[in-house]
Amino acid sequence: MREVVEKKVLSENDRLAAELRQRYREQNILCVNFISSPGSGKTALLEKTLGSFAPGTPVAVLTGDLQTDNDARRLMRYGFPVRQIVTGGTCHLDARMVERHLNELGFRGPGLLLVENVGNLVCPSSYDLGEAAKIVLLSVTEGEDKPLKYPGIFHRASLMILTKTDLLPHVEFDPKLALENARKIHPEIDYLALSSKTGEGFDQWLAWLAALQQKTRQEAPATIS
Amino acid sequence: MHEVGIASSIIESIEAEARRRPDAQFTAVGVRIGELSNVDRDALAFAFEALTLKTPLEHLRLEIEWCPRRQKCLACGEEFVVKDWELTCPKCGEARSTCIGGTELDIAYLELEEPCEKS
Ligand SMILES: Nc1nc2c(ncn2[C@@H]2O[C@H](COP(=O)(O)OP(=O)(O)OP(=O)(O)O)[C@@H](O)[C@H]2O)c(=O)[nH]1
Ligand SMILES: [Mg+2]
Ligand SMILES: [Zn+2]
Question: Which atom of ligand 1 lies closest to the CA of A118?
Answer without folding.
Answer: 25
